[in-house]
Structures are given as C-alpha cells and as structure tokens.
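Task: encode each sequence below as structure tokens.

Item 1
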Amino acid sequence: MSRVVLITGGSRGIGLACAQRFAALGDKVAVTYNSSPPPPEFFGVKCDVTNADDVDAAFTAVEEHFGPVEILVSNAGITKDTLLLRMSEADFSAVIDANLTAAFRVVKRATPKMLKARSGRIILMSSVVGLLGSAGQANYAASKAGLVGFARSLARELGSRSITVNVIAPGPVATDMTAALGEDRLKELTNAVPLNRMASPEEIAGVVAFLAGPDGGYITGAVIPVDGGLGMGH
C-alpha cells in the first residue's frame, strides 16, 4: 500500500533525495520548503518549521490532500558557524530552534494520528558532528546531539504503539551547501573520512527508506551513522 510521507526541508539536497526515493517506492510524498519550491511531482507546502502555526497548517494541508502522515522525516535545518567567542546568543538560539525545537514541533504534530493508527515511522536527521563535535559549530553540534536524546525518549514513549523513532547521522554529503565551501575545505573534509569521499544524498536516502520500510520495523531508538567511518567508535 502507498504510504503518506512528509519530509521537512525536502526541496533540495538530502531531503529531495529522500522524496525521490519514497516516490520511486510508490508512496505519496509531501515536502515542506522555506524558499525554493520542490519539483512539481511532489506536494509542496511552504512552511517555516520555527513557527508552530506554520507547522500545524502544513500538516493540515497534507492531511487534507493525502491523509494522515505515516512516515515523518525531520530534515530541515540551518547552520550559523563561527567560533564560540564570536557566536552571538541569537545565532546559538536560531540554530537550536531550527534544528532541534523544530523537530519537536513536527513530531508532536504528527504523533496523535500515529498513536490512533498504532503505527508510524519517525526519522530525525542529525549529523556526525553531533557525536564528534566540530570547532566553530558548537550551536550546530548541540542541536544535532539533542536529537539523539529526544529520539530515544520518544522511542520509549511511543514503542508500545508500534511507532519507531530513529536518528541518522550523516557525515559530509555532496550537496549545494557543501559545494559552496571551496576546494580546499572539501579536500580537508574528505581526507578526514576513512572512505576518502563524501556521501551522495542518495546514500542517505537509502538508509532513510530502509528505516521506514518493513526491514526496519524492529529498529527504534537507534543512531545510524552514514559517514564513511568518520565517527566510528561514537
């Protein structure tokens, strides 16, 4: 049966690759976006995930178009990188809000319908940085590490209703965002990865699809690294 999938931040990069993977499986795919709309084959909903009213409106639109969300991929996020002594409180708070608190907003909105159905898959997009740390990314690392405790708490709360909650921790991924870093920084990133390359967005999407599929049904509260070995041991 075709499932209803909602991916936040699904108009490009990892989110778009996830949308394309689920669509190829025959699922009904909706994506939220903030600035650039997704390709026309997906049901796009403009949504600022830092705004609770926007989140509620987005879910309502998806529910009216497709029905209740059965698979939620919380992928939207931002970075505001700088060293601690230069980091403003506003920059720290903005990243926590967009990456961690936004996950709370979308998961809380999705959960009542999943509880009623006694079924659901929730996948949160973290980062290897949340496990390793990264100079100049204290705000980003804190937000991504917070997703782990959040997911594991929810896995315990929701497991009796057959709702799984898992975290994916990608390493460096070849997207428009990383392409803008410049050749020297990209070389530095890939040199740190045992596999000596960046991931493709499709490789992340494959793990998302696995966790959302029948073979991932007995996995919950897990942190799945897709990082080329960068974070091994964490």
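Item 2
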Amino acid sequence: MSLIQTVVGLFDTARISFPTVADSLRGPVPASVTEQRLSWWTAKLLRDAEVDLHVSGLEHAGDGREAMIVMSNHQSLYDIPVLFQALPGSLRMVAKAELFRMPVWGRAMLAAGFIRINRADREQAVESLRATGGALLAQGTRVWIAPEGTRSKTGELGPFKSGGFRMALDFGVRILPVVVDGTRHVLASTDWTVHRGKTVTVTVLPPIDPAPFGIERRKELMSEVRCAIASGLGVAP
C-alpha cells in the first residue's frame, strides 16, 4: 500500500486541471485537448498503481462512435481511470455536485464536459442530465453514469436510481451495461491509501435498447440492466 501513490495521483490530477481551467478562461476547451489529457491522466493513474486490468466483451461496445449511456456498478474512485481506459470512444461521467466544489478540479471537470448533478435536488439533476447529457450524446460522446449513485462499501450492488434510464428513453440511445470488479481493492470508498498490484476486471455486456420498454415500463428496464450487472458480478439481483 502507498500513501505516496495517493499524493502522486493528486499531483497528476492537478497537472491536467490547471491547464484545463486556464484554457477555459479563453473559451471552450477543444475536445481533442481534453481527450488527450484525460487519456494521459487515467493511463498514468493505473500504471502508477500497477493495476492489472483485464477487459472482456469489447465486441459489445462497438468502435466507440455510437452514442450510448454506459451504466456500471460503482466500487471506487478508480472506476474512473479504469473505464476511461477500458472503453472505446469519447466518454464523460455524471458526478455528484460535491466534486465540482473542489478547487480547480471542479472547474476543470466542468470545462471538460463532465455532468454535475445535485443528488438533493431532483429537478436540477434531471435538467442537467437532459441539457448537458443530451448535448454530449448529440455529439456522439458516451455518457457514463453509476445508477447506484454512490460507491459500494462492500462490493455489493445497491439499488438503482432512475435518472439515467429516463435520459436513455428521452434521447433514444442504447444502454451499455458494464461490470467493474476489483477497484475497491485498489482504493476503497472509505480509504485514501492506494493499494498497488491489484487485478481489476471489466466486463462489457450486450447493449440494451430502452425503446421497447417506454416510459410506462421504465422499472422493468431498470430491473433488466441491474440483473445484467448483478449477473456479471456473480451476485443476486
């Protein structure tokens, strides 16, 4: 285990945050610039933590050009670099408003196109998903949301929130279920110490089209996606 690695990770986060904020003061940051920075940052985090990453089912993800809503379980902050490195195409995450209050990093997240939602304000959360999320999907960017809404402390799969499913129905895009396992051993939700040399697996499951469900059967859609991810984790839905 290494607290030094935690400090290095924070330093590397600052290395991409400060220039992104500076660029944003002059206007919108080009997507090519943010993609390059995110790719460098997430790859370095995994390399420094000596994460042994195994990805299967990539044939279900396509070539990255189809706009999709990626839904995964949520074990750790290291889910972020893992999914950015594992999945093809441009990816942006939905994150809680508290992260955007962090100095510099929060401003950089906004400039990079991450989606801010206030979990205590359902109306704001829905509007943010529709406005910012809709714009990203229209550009062909994949939007990643963890429907549990928070990191699991035990690795068990928690109940799902409905916002991402409504967005998929509203914009007519497929949901790409993804299973992440092992990141909680790298950095637990209650820990600040990075544990090196852990194995992480990512399993990409077949996309699910929300259209046949419609708004009326949204709960059935949520159940189908949750059952798929639970099955991939080897746990009861």
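Check on item 2: Strands lie at 52-56, 68-72, 91-96, 115-117, 142-145, 174-181, 199-204. The longest strand covers residues 174-181.
End of task.
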